[in-house]
Amino acid sequence: MILAARRRGAVHLALLEAGVLVDYAIWQPDEPDGVGDRYTGRVTARAPALGGVFVDLGAASGFLPDSAGGKSASDGDLLAVRIIRAAQGGKGPRLARAPGEPAGRPGLDARGPGPIAEFRALHPAAPILAEDFELIARLRPDFAGVEHAPSCFAGIEEEIAGLTEPVVRLPGGARAIISPTPALTAIDIDAGAATAERGEKTGLQARLNRALIPELARQIRLRNLNGAILIDFAGMKASARPSLAPDLTQALARDPLKPRLLGFTSLGFAEILRPRIRPPLHEILP
């Protein structure tokens, strides 16, 4: 099911599967992040070092990579483009060429679907439970199955509040320490009490790490951690850690953004690349 509630002027959205929170997003209907929006843009400058062109969208400027249709563009060209990554980290939106012809001048042509439509696309029959009637009135013209459910967030408020905390409790007494930086997100797995309680024996750390991988993948999706992600699993020698690859790949496959396990570094860090579409929650939640 999909839950919707107003919090501090924005609509907070939660996606539950079998009663488990699997995805979370913040939607500002009056100030959307622009992902999926179609614009007419005018090329203003080529940036050879960046491999693309800057495009005037009217009220903002975006970047169109050569790999997404910018290679043949020249200064002054009018293009139909779509935002594929929201502005974040001090950078403007990332663009791709859109089918069809541009309109007469730079500006917004059509809004994209927004996160609630993306959740519904994953679960077309899922009901949408909204806390207040004003929100219901806004949603019903576009979505079927919108129902009134006061305090629908009551059972998940505590979990949501923890999504910006750097420490996550994991199965088996382990914990993950999440450290975002501008370049990457580092996740350190601490076996903690698990090793102390069970003692040292062959295969213990491998079993512990395998057991926590599904929850770790869920946290990556919930927090919308993106870009380069490095995971330092607990205890195992660097040479043994690639044995975790099948479990990690399977857990990541449930994520609609389809993050990729690139492999393990020489130091044994799992290297994951998750597409940057919207800012991570730690950048937008108070």
UniProtKB/TrEMBL annotation:
Necessary cofactors: Mg(2+)
Stated name of the protein: Ribonuclease E/G
The UniProt record lists the keyword Hydrolase: yes
Xref: InterPro entries: RNA-bd_AU-1/RNase_E/G, RNase_E/G
Domain annotation RNA-binding protein AU-1/Ribonuclease E/G: ranges: 154-276
PANTHER family named among the record's database cross-references: RIBONUCLEASE, RIBONUCLEASE E_G-LIKE PROTEIN, CHLOROPLASTIC
Region entry Disordered, spans: 91-111
Pfam families the record matches: RNase_E_G (PF10150)
Gene Ontology BP annotations: rRNA processing
Keywords (A to Z) from UniProt: Endonuclease, Hydrolase, Magnesium, Metal-binding, Nuclease, RNA-binding
Originating species: Acidiphilium acidophilum
Highest taxon above the source species: Bacteria
Gene Ontology CC terms: cytoplasm
Residues in coiled coil: none
Gene Ontology molecular function: endonuclease activity; hydrolase activity; metal ion binding; RNA binding; RNA nuclease activity
Signal peptide coordinates: none
Keyword check for ATP-binding: no
